[in-house]
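Duplicate of earlier report; Beta-xylosidase input re-posted below.
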Amino acid sequence: MGSGTRRRRRWVAFLGAAALSVTAGGALACPASAEPAQVDFGTHCVPPPIAGIPAIDGTTTAKITVDDATPTVGDTVTVTYTVVKPAASNPVDIDLPADIMTPTGKVALGGAQTGDLTVAGPKKNDPVPGKGAFPSFSMTGTFTVTAPGAITLSPGDYNIHTSYLLELDTPCTVSTPPAPVSETITATGGGQTNHRAISLGSASGSPGAGVTVTGTDFAPGAAVTLAGRAGAAETADRATATADAQGSFSGSLAVSDKATTGVVAYEGSVWSDDKGAGPAAYVVIDDTPLPADSQKINSSVKAGTLSMTQAGDTVELAAVDYGKGGFSRGSLQTVTVKDFRGGPAGWSLTGKVTDFTGPGGAKIDAAKLGWTPVCGTKAGSPSTCRAGSPGSVGSAGATLASAPNGTLTGGEFTADARLSLNVPAFTPPGSYSGVLTLTLT
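Output:
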């Protein structure tokens, strides 16, 4: 099923008999959150030994932002940790060129949900003069909401890695943890109940270095797969661990793929949103020396979203005669699904309908609406669309189309259906309307 961010999108439709129509609406927008607080906190930074200078006890200015301040339990929240003013500076007299800094760090969760979230930033910076101040930088990571209530986010330890002439680290730790709260989100219940969580011993490492992965709330005694992620796709980096009687585990994963952006853990041998946790942000520091007189050229492919659109907002089903009744038929407006996430998760498009109401309180039961789904896959798509089974839609709902989980999923798809409303013979004349809701997950 949907990943990552398992965002849910819904379209609402009105159906009627005699003069039957379908109308589609859009997803509701979430209210804007208050501006996150910019906070200051004491920091102890240790320059590389080669610099020959003592540790720096200074002040870091930072802020934390989120992509969703009002999530539901089960949602994935993307967190951005921005160090506005680092406590440390360039420890050497040599000018540092652009794009040689790789920041990593942690965000402390508190309140309704506790733990440390690893975050990592891209190798991107403005030039830094010798002994000059390090510029501002941002790091991102994600976590799955496992409990309703207020969840606080505080900036944590961070590390500045520089890759120029030598591979050097400047780790900075919070002097008196936790640092002040910069952002608070309010989670509501009603989502999935997967409480599995993982944390990493570090947010970065050299190619092939091992990272310690610890997990909680897995099934007791379960065999757990540890795997690297490059964006939303798994890499070949894998290891296994076994959960103890309390559902906790600790294992080591050697991460060699230089494109890695995160680490996941899941029960069994195939990723599942219901039995997995992560990704926890991780970056491989490429310390491979370049040949003389050469330049390294980097590129990337940015993961997109799971979305859907529909061809129109009205469907007219054919009228039936009073006294005869029978099937009022028509076609669903074509729904186009675009899965540009590039990961292992499939998707499902389902629908449910309310009773059809007419003049004087007359109604036709929701179970009377049936459909025969069809779907198509655009050439070149990694996934293949599967049509749902013919049958009643009803208030309980039914599947219109889906695509399975896989090693790499994605593509463009179209979903349609022949609709038939079974109208009883002596249904009072007039227009009847119901509400059809399509949900993509």
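The first strand starts at residue 9 and ends at 15.

Merging into the original ticket.
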